[in-house]
């Protein structure tokens, strides 16, 4: 490591996670891509025999934003520079075969395009999530995905996460944050740790149904809303790290990077954004309204309560064709009330791919009712 690294508390939470599925969900300007650079730098250093994936939504975003910042972090914080043939110095090459002085990586690729080869044998594949099938057939150890709010569900679940199958990364036995800092190591270093294939998702807020369901944001709504609006606090939840289904959620506001953003900039953002947008873009809330979803006075706590099916009255079903990428089927009943009719929404079918179709929701409705 080239210099001492300063971390905010939310950054330290995600960097030191030993969970299989991790999400850093923050306000704009928090430093998500910087955190990607730090995690990838530690993986390069401590897991030389691993192969990873770094993905963004387009090659333009991957090249001009994600990797641009990551390269800078590698250089500034780890002293990693691109290899120059003229000087015979450097630590990695991009899109070309590594020189003979590099440790052999041991993999066979049809092409070196969109790959980074490191001096110690580590390999990173670069993937545009609009061409996510490029990763099909390749087994990898870890994945770091940028701005996943704009990524298709099947790209993440069916292609990236399903590729995390190799067995070379483990949690360091008797790990200590003060002593070791980063908890993951190469399995060759010691063979008594717990194997892990981590995926790290970095995203700014958006109303993305599948991502919310994947990390169960609604389950922790009260805890999230009780912490993120305090500029000095944040939400973190880590469950069952010994399980292959373990998840780490870190949700934090832009205030945790106020040193670089500036208090004045944050005050300016709050003054020019409507409250719901500020809740999302500054405070990192995964529940903010985007202006077209609800009536302005709608409140989940005030206007939603449990209702049950009345078997004496018919069911009504309606379809919502505008909830991309889902086909939503809503089930309701119209019931007599005191002086007026009641319209109860009793169920909703909003299925993940590949069942997010008319046929899929109709079949699910028929099976249940």
Explain briefly what this protein structure is:
The protein is α/β, with parallel strands linked by helices.
Number of helices: 12
Q: At CATH's second level, what is the architecture of the largest domain?
A: 3-Layer(aba) Sandwich
Query: The biggest beta sheet, please?
Result: 9 strands, mixed
Give the CATH superfamily of the largest domain. P-loop containing nucleotide triphosphate hydrolases
Give the count of structural domains.
Answer: 2
Order of helices and strands, N to C?
Answer: HEHEHEEEEHEHEEHHEEHHHHEEEH
CATH top level of the largest domain is Alpha Beta
How much strand?
15-25%
Low-confidence stretches: none
Shape: globular
Features of the shown structure:
alpha/beta; globular; 369 residues; Rossmann fold; 28% helix; single chain; 12 helices; 9-stranded mixed sheet
Explain the overall architecture.
- The chain has 369 residues and is an alpha/beta fold.
- The chain folds into two domains: 9-272, Rossmann fold (3-Layer(aba) Sandwich), CATH 3.40.50.300; 307-368, no CATH class.
- Helices cover 28% and strands 20% of the residues.
- The protein is built from twelve helices and 14 strands.
- The protein has helices spanning 9-15, 32-46, 59-78, 153-160, 177-180, 209-214, 221-227, 258-261, 263-272, 275-281, 300-303, 358-368, and strands spanning 21-26, 51-56, 92-94, 115-118, 123-128, 142-146, 169-171, 184-186, 199-203, 235-239, 247-252, 316-320, 328-336, 341-349.
- The strands form three sheets. A nine-stranded mixed sheet has the order 3-4-5-2-6-9-1-11-10. Strands 12-13-14 form a three-stranded antiparallel sheet, covered by helices on one side.
- Strand 13 and strand 14 (341-349) form a beta hairpin.
- Helix 2 (32-46) crosses helix 3 (59-78).
- It is globular.
- The model has no long low-confidence stretch (mean pLDDT 89).
């Amino acid at each position: 490591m080239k210099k001492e690294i300063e971390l905010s508390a939310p950054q330290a939470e995600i960097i030191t996670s030993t969970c299989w599925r991790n999400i850093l969900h923050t306000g704009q300007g928090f430093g998500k891509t910087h955190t990607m650079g730090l995690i990838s730098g530690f993986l390069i250093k401590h897991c030389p025999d691993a192969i990873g994936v770094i993905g963004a939504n387009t090659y333009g975003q991957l090249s001009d934003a994600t990797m641009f910042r990551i390269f800078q972090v590698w250089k500034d914080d780890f002293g990693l520079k691109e290899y120059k043939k003229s000087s015979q110095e450097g630590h990695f090459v991009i899109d070309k075969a590594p020189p003979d002085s590099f440790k052999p990586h041991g993999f066979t690729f049809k092409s070196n395009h969109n790959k980074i080869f490191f001096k110690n044998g580590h390999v990173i594949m670069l993937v545009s999530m609009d061409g996510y099938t490029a990763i099909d057939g390749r087994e990898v150890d870890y994945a770091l995905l940028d701005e996943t709010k704009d990524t298709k569900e099947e790209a993440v679940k069916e292609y990236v996460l399903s590729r995390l199958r190799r067995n070379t990364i483990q949690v360091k036995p008797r790990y200590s944050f003060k002593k070791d800092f980063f908890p993951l190591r190469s399995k060759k270093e010691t063979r008594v740790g717990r194997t892990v294939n981590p995926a790290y998702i970095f995203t700014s807020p958006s109303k993305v149904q599948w991502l919310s369901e994947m990390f169960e944001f609604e389950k922790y709504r009260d805890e999230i809303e009780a912490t993120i609006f305090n500029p000095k606090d944040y939400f973190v939840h880590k469950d069952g790290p010994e399980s292959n289904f373990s998840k780490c959620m870190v949700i934090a506001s832009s205030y945790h990077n106020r040193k670089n953003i500036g208090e004045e900039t944050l005050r300016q953002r709050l003054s020019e954004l409507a409250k719901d947008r500020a809740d999302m873009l500054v405070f990192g809330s995964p529940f903010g309204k985007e202006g077209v979803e609800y009536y302005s006075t709608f409140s989940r706590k005030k206007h939603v309560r449990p209702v049950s099916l009345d078997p004496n009255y018919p069911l009504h079903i309606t379809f919502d064709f505008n909830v991309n990428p889902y086909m939503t089927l809503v089930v309701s009943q119209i019931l007599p009330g005191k002086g007026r009719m009641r319209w109860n929404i009793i169920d909703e079918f909003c299925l993940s791919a590949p069942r997010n179709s008319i046929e899929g929701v109709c079949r699910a409705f028929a099976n249940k009712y």
